[in-house]
Design a protein that fits this description.
The structure is a single chain. By secondary structure, the protein is of the alpha+beta class. Among the domains are: 91 residues, no CATH class; 78 residues. The chain has four helices and eleven strands. Strands 1-8-11 form a three-stranded mixed beta sheet, covered by helices on one side. The protein has a two-stranded antiparallel sheet with strand order 2-7. Strands 3-4 form a two-stranded antiparallel sheet. The radius of gyration is 65 Å and the shape is rod-shaped. It starts with 8 loop residues before the first strand and ends with a helix.
Length: 307
């Protein structure tokens, strides 16, 4: 499952035959005697064996030379006593006998095996593995959600199927003599529901992106509107202040013109304390401008910078 992911593997059939018979077995095995064991560190075998070893040995030799012996008895009818033996002068015998007896020993093992009533008599497995499938993608890497376009399908190679089959055989302890069977095939699974689900999820994400983008644009527009509103408000306030100052200046000029005309005509005009203070302040400012023009210019520049 870690190799092909669980959704790409489908076990079509798994059949295991069990033998519940209780088996008792007794074995007597004879093996050669190992004279020198093999060294696993070397690439060649040093193992030496011998079929058997001599445990005991017996040798017998016999040698005879001389006359032979013939049975004899009384003449006439056969008696009750067995006949005796008499050396025959005309018969001379000679023989040799030699006998060797060797007792050999071999490795002998007696095994008494009693098996539990459980044995796997056969395993058959059939597995279907899906190939690689994916929706087509655009040049920018996003999914192409056009339902008329077929998904991309890449089948497994023969080597990959053979590797998967070998893995399954190792996992089930495959035994060909037992009659085990393993089949691993590449079949493209029907993933229509998966593609539709993926299209729906992708469309939801795209819709959420559009909503977030619209909300971001709205917030930016609101922020920009607030800045414009404040700028316009300041500009309107400045213009209103300028109009008020200009109107006050015109009214002041009109008063001053009226006062000068009255003074020229010799008319005594009663001024309010505020008008008298303004006239005095204006006269002092004009005198200061004539006497110290540089300081007055610096003061005006400071006022303009503050505005």
């Amino acid at each position: 499952e870690r190799i092909y992911t669980p959704d790409r593997i489908q076990i079509v059939r798994l059949n295991m035959d069990f033998n519940w018979d209780k088996v008792s077995e007794e074995r007597e095995e004879y093996t050669p005697i190992e004279m020198e064991p093999d060294n696993p560190a070397t690439p060649y075998s040093e193992r030496k064996v011998k079929d058997s070893l001599i445990v005991s040995e017996k040798s017998t030799k016999e040698h005879f030379e001389g006359h032979g012996w013939n049975p004899e008895g009384p003449a006439g009818t056969e008696g009750n006593k067995p006949p005796g033996y008499k050396a025959s002068d005309d018969q001379f015998s000679k023989y040799n006998k030699e006998e060797n007896v060797k007792n050999n020993a071999v490795n002998k093992a007696i095994k008494r095996i009693q098996r539990d009533p459980y044995d796997v008599s056969g395993i058959s497995v059939a597995i279907a593995i899906d190939g690689f499938q994916d929706l087509p993608r655009k040049d920018d890497g996003d999914y192409d959600l056009d339902p008329t376009k077929k998904p991309l399908q890449i089948a497994l190679t023969r080597d990959e199927l053979k590797q998967a089959e070998n893995i399954v055989k190792k996992a089930i302890n495959f035994n060909e003599i037992r009659g085990d069977q393993v089949a691993v095939e590449n079949i493209m699974f029907d993933r229509t529901s998966d593609w539709n689900k993926l299209r729906e999820e992708y469309q939801k994400k795209e819709q959420l992106k559009r909503i977030l983008l619209a909300a971001l644009i709205g917030v930016f527009a609101l922020f920009l509107g607030m800045i414009l509103f404040r700028a316009i408000s300041k500009e309107l306030a400045r213009r209103r202040r300028l109009r008020e100052e200009q109107l006050a200046l015109e009214q002041q000029r009109m008063r001053e013109a009226a006062l000068r005309a009255a003074e020229e005509e010799g008319i005594d005009v009663e001024l309010s304390l505020e008008d008298k203070a303004r006239l005095e302040l204006q006269s002092n400012a004009m005198n200061l401008a004539r006497e110290r023009p540089d300081d007055v210019a610096q003061l005006l520049r400071t006022w303009l910078a503050e505005e």
